[in-house]
Amino acid sequence: MMRVWYYVLAACAFSTSAVAQTSPQQYPNQLVHIVVPSSAGGVSDALARTIADKVGANWKQAVIVENRPGLAGTESVARSSADGYTLLVTSNGHTVINRINKNLPFDAVNDFTGVAQLASVPFVLVATRSLPVSDLSGLRALARTTRPSLTIAIPGIGSSASILSELFKATAGIDLLDIPFRGAGESEMAVQRGDVQLLFMAANIAVSMIQAGAVKPIAVVSEKRIPRLPNVPTMAEAGLSQMTYDAWFGVLAPAGTPKPIVEKIGADIKQVLTMPVVRSALEQQGFEVRFSGPADFNATIRRDAARYAQVFKAIQAPGK
Asked: Count of H helices and E strands in the chain?
C-alpha cells in the first residue's frame, strides 16, 4: 500500500513540475533558440535578429538566432520539444514545403503552430533593360507571341518569388520559362545582365536597382503603390486585379506548445513591434509591419497552404 502511495505522490509531483515549467508567468527561464531556415543576411534572418534583440531584453533572458538553411532547419524545429524554447522565423514559402518536396518526415502545417505574423514585404516585377516593353499589358502581349517563352528567374522553388511567379502565370494567362537559381543574389545579377528577362524582387532591393537603372519596373505586388516608387502601378492598377499576394514572415513553434506559452510569446512580440525604434528599423529595411496573433496567423497559414497547393499542383515534386 505504501508503495502505491509513493507512486501516486511521485506522479503528482511530476505533474506539478510539468505545469510549472509551462507557466506563462515563469516563461522564459532558460535560453530561447530562434531557428532561421536560411543563410545569414536574408529577410527572415534580419527579422529574427531584430525581434530576438528586443524581446530578449524585455524577457531578461538570452535569445539566440541560429541559421540552419534548408529543410533540415525547419525539421529541427518540428522535432524540438514543444515548450516554447525553440522557435522558427520563416516566410510564407513554408506553406508549400510539402507540396514541392516528396515524402518529408514532417508536415509544415500540422507539425507547427503559428505564434505571430511579423511583417510583409511588397514585391516588384522587374524586367531586364533590353526587354522591349515597360508595362504589364505590353508584357502580357509579348509573352503570348514569343517563342520560345520569355524567362523568369526563380531564386529557389518554394521561395516567395517562386510562389509569385506561379500565381502570376496562372492569373495573367501566360507561359514563362522558369530559370532556377540558388538564391536571390544570383537571380538579381542574372536579370541585371540580361541572362533572364523577368524576376519578382523584394521591394527593398528592387528600389535601389530601379533607381540605379539596373532593371526596369513593370508592376508592384501590393495593395497600394510603394512611396519610393510612386510612378510604378500596382498589379490591380495595371489591369490584373486578381493578382493578390501577401509575402508574410512570422514566428512558428512546434505543434503542441502550450497555448498560454504561445499566447505570451505572441503578446510580447506584439509589444516589441509597437516600439518606434523597431518599426522604423524594419520599415527602413523594406518591411511593412503587420502583426497578427496565434489564432489569426494559424488561419492565414492554413488558407495559404490550401491556395498554393492548387497553384503548385502542376509542379513536379523532386523525386517523382
From this structure: 11, 11
* Eight-state DSSP code of residue 128: -
pTM: 0.80
Q: Please state, in angstroms and rounded to a whole number, the distance separating the CA atoms of residues 16 and 20.
A: 6
Cis peptide bond prior to 217, omega within 30° of 0: no
Q: How far, in Å, CA of 42 to CA of 179, rounded?
A: 21
- Do strands 86-91 and 32-36 pair parallel, antiparallel, or not at all (unpaired)? parallel
How many other CB atoms sit within 10 Å of the CB of residue 44? Answer: 24
The kind and range of the H/E element at 185 are helix 184-193
Q: CB neighbours (10 Å) of residue 281?
A: 15
Q: Which amino acid is at 291?
A: F
Q: What is the pLDDT along the chain (320 residues), one digit of tens a residue?
A: 444 443 444 444 444 444 445 577 889 999 999 999 987 877 888 899 999 999 999 999 999 999 998 889 999 999 999 999 999 999 998 999 998 888 899 999 999 999 999 999 999 999 999 999 999 999 999 999 998 899 999 987 778 888 899 899 989 999 999 999 877 888 999 999 999 999 999 888 899 899 999 999 999 998 889 888 999 999 999 999 989 888 999 999 999 999 999 999 999 999 999 999 999 988 888 888 999 999 999 999 999 999 888 877 755 444 44
CB neighbour burial string for 195-223, b if at least 16 within 10 angstroms, e if fewer: ebbbbbbbbbbbbebbeeebbbbbbbbbe
- Interaxial angle between packed helices 259-273 and 294-311, expressed in degrees from 0 to 180 and rounded to the nearest 10: 90
Q: Which amino acid is at 44?
A: S
Tell me, what DSSP letter sits at residue 11? H
Sorted by where each starts, the structural domains of the chain and their CATH numbers stand as 30-121+247-311 (3.40.190.150), 123-221 (3.40.190.10)
Tell how strand 123-127 and strand 63-67 pair up: unpaired
Q: Extract the runs of DSSP E, i.e. beta strands, from the chain.
A: 32-36, 63-67, 86-91, 112-120, 123-127, 151-155, 177-181, 198-202, 216-221, 248-254, 288-292
